[in-house]
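Record type: ASSEMBLY
Status: queued
Input:
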Amino acid sequence: MQGFLHQLFAGIAMGGVYACMALALVIIYQATHVVNFAQGEMAMLSTYVAWTLIASGLPYWVAFVLTIVFSFAMGAAIERLVIRRFPKESPLAVVIAMVGLLVIINSLVGLIFTYDTKEFRTPFVGESPVQIFSFHELGALAVTLAVMGLVFLFFRFTRIGLGMRAAAANPVSAQLVGISVSGMLSLGWGLAASVGAVAGVMTAPIVYLDPNMMLNIIIYAFAGALLGGISNPWGAVLGGFMVGIFENLMGAYVVGSELKLSVALALIVTIVTMKPEGLFGRRLVTRV
Amino acid sequence: MSTTPLPATPAMLSRGTSVPRIARPSSPAFVFALFVAAGVAVMYLATGYLLLQATQILVFAIAILGLNILSGYNGQISLGHGAFFAIGGYATAVLIAKLGVPFWAAVPLAGMASLIVGLLIGLPALRLEMLYLALATFSLAIAVPQLLKNKFVEGWTGGVLGLQIPKVAPWAAIGLDRDQTIYLYALIVAVIVFAMTIGLLRGRVGRALEAVRDHPVAAETMGVDVRRYKTVAFGISALFTGLAGGIGAVVTAFVAPDSYSFFLSITLLVGAVIGGLRSVVGAFFGAVFVVLMPNYAEQISQAAPWAIYGVFLIVFMYFMPDGVMGVLHTAWSRITRPTTP
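Status: finished
Output:
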């Protein structure tokens, strides 16, 4: 029982990370209607930035905040410089550009930091207040939940958040009432990059830091976002947690840890073929 | 690649009829014959590493052609084509190493295996929108090594360690050594596959595939069976890439899960984009690029080829969405455009 509970809570902790990544994916999907294949690599780059800042002697939380600021700028810049230039009518071109972005970030980090695995320290050291969680898992869960809560409050209660939702729902009308739609798109990308950065920094102590650290995690995040519904941010968050728990329990008791990724793949294929709108999403209707 | 039709002048018409089609230097058959002749010449001129690279270029050209048919001509995306390369490679390895099938028979059989898997994947893929298909194939690309390592298929695939393939017997009867034999085999497969593709794309099938890409609804109303042609495209694509994977395995005489990583799928995509997605000959240029460029770039750093791949993907998609062939085509039509007085 103790073992089962531990696996369950480890799943919840990783679920927080997947949920953050899934939320980031959905924010971008809502804003620009593209799936950001480079989301994982952007988070990985942010994590390397955090690592550098911490290594240079800054206190952990100062580095954390600076990393989020950097990530925001990076996300907005990528939207301005790359994504904006590709017409949405050609999804093939956009997808290929995203993959290009993924490869560029991955190789640049490899070029600068080498492909060696690095330790990443956690701010949560010491005795865990709750037995079945490790202290880092508990801390990571708290941080990811706090970030998602902030994002929720931002979208629900601020003027800019409302503007972003308006720009996503109906760009033309939003423009007509004086919302800068193009600014909102950049903002969306920046926000998503920041949320992703939190996920990266919180995962790195568990999976260690290396340029390919997010390649697996992004798959679980895709699975989470699809499960919850890529058109519904909170569904995607819930989906992220569900995938975290599912993946951990399957890995521990059913298929073994070396097939966990294949479980995520099977989940993705099942969802996209059976119920592409996910559990909580709206069905996308395309007109001829 | 849209070229504005020019009004036919009497001069143009007469130029088209006075010279026999085949002998014109720009006729497809003539160019094709030139390519084949050059291919045979390479077999006698190149040796050692150079010949090996030539073989690799043929392997990648076949694989990239498979991706071109799917993405360029049929508008479906696959970010996980390395999976078909892996199926071809592993099926070939198992057939040769475990069942003692000669390599020249193993590769086509492996291609058939890949074709069957391609049709099976193609069926659910029919229902997917572009983004969902991209997501599913992207995930597949990342999961391939893990699928190959898992313990259920370990008895056949050799698990993490991979599978050694016995060295192929050279075709000594026609005076070839081992490297030349594999090269000639790759060349024969390439010639068949490219000729088949050119024939297919010029006819009814090709027009149907492109109609499905450009406007599925209009294609349907014109009597094109959209589902059938999408499945056909997936099948042919898987067949070609599987054949290439099979020859690739024979060349390296070894298959292991990590040779079929996510980055292999990306390499195929890079080759397709650079050569030109909507081009048959482009597949060859794309292959030349992905085989030769890393040799030079790796002297700078291990990561350099990938940085170049990434930049090229974005730059090509933005400036030259039809790749090298698109640029050549535009240049060619500028040169040959009759000047109006």
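Annotation: Residues 2-32 of chain A form the longest helix (31 residues).
Annotation: The CA atoms of residues 223 and 268 of chain A lie 5 Å apart.
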